[in-house]
Write a structure and sequence with these properties.
This protein has helices at about 10-35, 55-60, 85-105, 125-135, 145-150, 180-190; strands at about 45-50, 65, 75-80, 115-120, 140-145, 160-165, 170-175. About 40% of the residues lie in helices and about 20% in strands. By secondary structure, the chain is α/β, with parallel strands linked by helices.
Length: about 190
């Protein structure tokens, strides 16, 4: 009599775990590869023009409904992608407020460098709330439908870039920047 070979079936949990790990790895690689990096030309996108006259004046904008970073007429734009409810963004905000004040006092950089934050997914009321807290003395615009956020590769927040007037990324950092002195030296070197 011939013996039976018993074929073992893989356990369902092992197959499910393997599929989950593969999906997580693929999703992480795809998202990281799409973010703008140093040397890249920033993709074209527009943002809603701020409603307040002083914000439009700070950016050098007219009354048009939208604007692009190239409309800012600056040697460099420090562009930060933030989330209204992002804990890390709130940690970084006071340091960026000090950076904004320091740049305003720098006789060489004051007119050449502009700061702008984009609150991904935020409503106008949420942006007003952020500004009212006082941690964002520079202009914050919203991206209510995540349109610009998607064009930028859907970065986690905070995501900070320094972009030249020609639209070239010369600095990119994902996460909280802890060395503000180093960032300032980079700005001096890249934007003079």
């Amino acid at each position: 009599m011939m013996g039976r070979c018993r074929r073992r079936r893989p356990r369902r949990w092992a197959v499910s775990a393997l599929w989950l790990m593969m999906a997580m790895a693929w999703g992480g690689l795809a998202a990281a590869a799409e973010l703008p990096g140093v040397g890249d030309a920033l993709p074209d996108f527009t943002l809603p023009t701020p409603g307040k006259a002083e914000d439009r004046a700070a950016l050098g904008l007219g009354d048009g409904a939208t604007f692009g970073l190239g409309d800012l007429h600056a040697q460099c734009v420090i562009f930060e992608v933030i989330g209204v409810y992002c804990v890390e963004c709130h940690k970084q905000a006071p340091s960026f407020a000090k950076l904004h004040a320091r740049l305003a006092k720098d006789g060489t950089l004051a007119g050449k460098v502009k700061m702008l934050a984009m609150a991904a997914g935020a409503t106008e009321k949420e942006v007003e709330y952020l500004r009212a807290k006082g941690n964002y003395p520079f202009v914050v615009v919203n991206d209510p439908d995540y349109v610009a956020h998607k064009i930028l590769g859907e970065p986690k927040t905070p995501f900070t870039m320094i972009v030249t007037g020609e639209g070239r990324v010369v600095f990119a950092h994902l996460g909280v920047i802890t060395d503000m002195g180093g960032l300032y030296r980079d700005i001096e070197k890249l934007c003079r």
